[in-house]
Amino acid sequence: MPRTRQLRDWLDQLFPRQPGEAPLPCAPASSDASFRRYFRLDLPDGTTRIIMDAPPEYEDCRPFIRIASLFHEAGVHVPEVLAADLEQGFLLLSDLGRTTYLDVLDARTAPALYRDANAALIALQCASRPGVLPVYDRALLQRELDLFPDWYIARHLGLTLDASQMADLRAVFAALLDNNLAQPQVFVHRDYHSRNLMLIGEAPTPAHSLTTANPGVLDFQDVVYGPITYDPVSLYRDAYIAWEEAQELDFVIRYWEAARAAGLPVRADFDAFYRDYEWMGAQRQLKVLGIFARLYHRDGKDGYLKDMPRVMAYLRRTARRYAELRPLARLLDRLENRPHETGLTF
């Protein structure tokens, strides 16, 4: 049976129709980098619901349900699961609206939006405890890093590293992972950025702050227990919007101050925290470049290609800044036939 027919039959079970009555309006709401799809259902009372379509041969809805409950207990605003058919891979969810952070982020709105994003993230991190979620261990972090040579270099650029280049890359990977794994461990969303944060209520103005329900948080089913800087760097070195570093520093300092005030185990010295943040960011940026390349070459999704230069700019900045990462900076220059650039070294 076609997937759309399965979905219609399930909706008819949830919302029975009278003979001759038209089906409830149902339109695509969004898609993501997985096999999941989302639809918005219009109900007769004027409210809306979201349907998650997660084909069970590719996706498992159970982690989403479990993590939604975990986040809710932590005080994070996530969709409510209203109905589920795990065998077919369908969920009926409350609707957090149509407006992402990315839709409204600018210099005027960012301070209030990010203040609320920090508060939600810190609430989640404060609820952290070991033994509840999968560990973001070395093997998983390494598998993510391997996406860069496998998909970005070999498939996207069509290049092959020689033995010396591969050795340099592996040495940088090892240094990054040593840093990442030495950081304090908390619950990690893994994609805490502007496309997965929803604006609840009206966009903020200088005279009005946001609601306590802001932001709505989506795409959390892959949460793990891992490095404390991972979600902050996902947020402030976002693949979809960039800030001048002076502005980014202001945002990150505000997170760090709030995290310290909440008793989270961030580094007492901000310079040391920012180094951890940048090195965690390098791991994520290498992964993201590999994922975006894979989405294009394997899955035929070209929408992420335009965001690659932004992610590469973050990676280059960090690689040039630290002596241990300089071999990565040289490799990136050679891959793109650029003259080698130097930067501040720490």
Automatic annotation (TrEMBL):
Listed Pfam families: APH (PF01636)
Keywords, comma-separated and alphabetical: ATP-binding, Nucleotide-binding
Aminoglycoside phosphotransferase domain span: 27-260
Protein name: Phosphotransferase
